[in-house]
Design a protein that fits this description.
Elements lengths: L2 H6 L41 H14 L3 E5 L2 H9 L7 E5 L4 H10 L6 E5 L4 H7 L4 E7 L11 H10 L3 E5 L4 H4 L9 E5 L13 E5 L2 H14 L5 H11 L2 H20 L4 E5 L9 H7 L6 E6 L2 H10 L4 E2 L9 E3 L11 H6 L6 E5 L5 H12 L2
Parallel strand pairs: 2-3, 2-4, 4-5, 5-6, 10-11
Antiparallel strand pairs: 1-7, 6-7, 8-9, 9-12, 11-12
This protein binds pyridoxal-5'-phosphate.
The site of pyridoxal-5'-phosphate has 15 residues, from helix 3.
Length: about 375
């Protein structure tokens, strides 16, 4: 089956006990045991809930994993996955990793003597040089935020396998429609389901897909022990949003390409970052491991004044953190997602005061461009 069909028919769309064509919201904390000698499949909703399970099975199938897990947020998913490691373990992560992941590795895991090296994973040699005897995992994001930098999964997974190192990929920006790292040999995929997977900016959640029963059992242990589970209501909302992932992204991607083309022609724009552009650094690598450029892009204006005026005058797009919704969302990293990083550090990462990030939604692109034009030229 192709991906669009799998979104609708993957064995988790019909409630087995009633035939309901929308998985019911099993809003229950516990389950009656009909036979004290023979417990049923479910006993307590932290350990397992049928609504959550339908979502967990779906993400496993869509990512090509053996098991899936749903958490109360993307960060709960990432923190829980990283909690399979122990004192004395060493991790490698890309240096422009999502801010919350940076916080967890630098201010939380460090307290438990799990050390993380943040490096430029777009440079394969740098990855090789940072591997130690106690390196247990490499955590990757590609394309990364907000400059859409591309990391070569094929090359890094090959190195990791030589050293018996687990590869974890945060696949939030691409979604399971456009990129499947497990199929390239990665071990664990994590998602902020808050973004493209749910797609409507109305729920916070996280998903994990794991390859291999043994590794999955370690993640399940943390999910059940730590308990950062996704509730049935939110599981249902994400199941609902997930069904339209392909059509949403197809449309958003088309619009992103058109918007990129238009931005490239504007005198007030200095540079556009979008993996779908042939001129984007690493674009060839990106298309060797993903099916499309996605719906997130960023651009630099020529002056800081233009960037600020744009942010103040844009009307159709929401000015917000987050991405992947049906509405276009623009954010100003230096004042929003990356505000806590000192200017000097930010500049080392290439995040300038003129940078604007756009998550393209489902508005008609002509309207969006018209709005962007007015805001840019304000
Ligand atoms: C939003 C996001 C997260 C965190 O997810 P939450 O659902 O906000 O906890 C992690 N990684 C990436 C790439 C994100 O965009």
């Amino acid at each position: 089956m192709n991906f669009g069909t799998k979104l609708i028919h993957n064995g988790n769309e019909i409630d087995k006990s009633t035939g309901a064509i929308s998985i019911p919201i099993y809003q229950t904390s516990t389950f009656h045991q009909f036979d004290i000698d023979d417990f049923g499949k479910y006993d307590y909703s932290r350990s397992g809930n049928p609504t959550r399970e339908a979502l967990e099975n779906s993400i496993a199938i869509l990512e090509g994993g053996d098991r899936g897990f749903a958490f109360s947020s993307g960060m709960a998913a990432i923190s829980s996955v990283l909690s399979i490691f122990a004192s004395g373990d060493h991790l490698i992560a890309c240096k422009d990793v999502y801010g919350g992941t940076y916080r967890i590795t630098s201010q939380f895991l460090s307290k438990f003597n799990v050390e993380t090296s943040l490096i430029d994973t777009t440079d394969v040699d740098e990855v090789r040089e940072h591997i130690r005897e106690n390196t247990k995992a490499i955590f990757l994001e590609s394309p990364s935020n907000p400059l859409l930098k591309i990391t070569n999964f094929h090359a890094i997974i090959k190195i990791a396998k030589e050293h018996n190192i687990i590869v974890i990929v945060d696949n939030t920006f691409m979604s399971p429609y456009l990129q499947n790292p497990i199929k390239l040999g990665a071990d664990i995929v994590v998602h902020s389901a808050t973004k493209f997977i749910s797609g409507h900016s109305d729920v916070v959640g996280g998903l994990v897909a794991v390859k291999g029963e043994k590794l999955a059992e370690r993640v399940y242990f943390v999910q059940n022990a730590f308990g950062a589970i996704l509730g049935p209501q939110d599981s249902w909302l994400i199941l609902r949003g997930l069904k339209t992932l392909k059509v949403r992204l197809d449309q958003e991607q088309k619009s992103a390409a058109k918007l990129t083309e238009w931005l490239n022609e504007q005198d007030l724009v200095e540079k556009v970052y979008y993996p779908g552009l042939k001129t984007h650094e690493g674009s060839d690598i990106h298309f060797s491991q993903a099916k499309g450029g996605g719906a997130v892009l960023s651009f630099e204006t020529k002056t800081v004044e233009t960037a600020i005026k744009f942010m103040k005058n844009v009307k159709l797009a929401a000015v917000a953190v987050s991405l992947g919704g049906v509405e276009t969302i623009v954010s100003y990293p230096v004042k929003m997602s990356h505000a806590s990083i000192p200017k000097e550090e930010r500049e080392k990462l290439g995040i300038k005061d003129t940078l604007i990030r756009v998550s393209v939604g489902l508005e008609d692109i002509e309207d969006l461009i018209k709005d962007f034009k007015i805001a840019l030229e304000a």
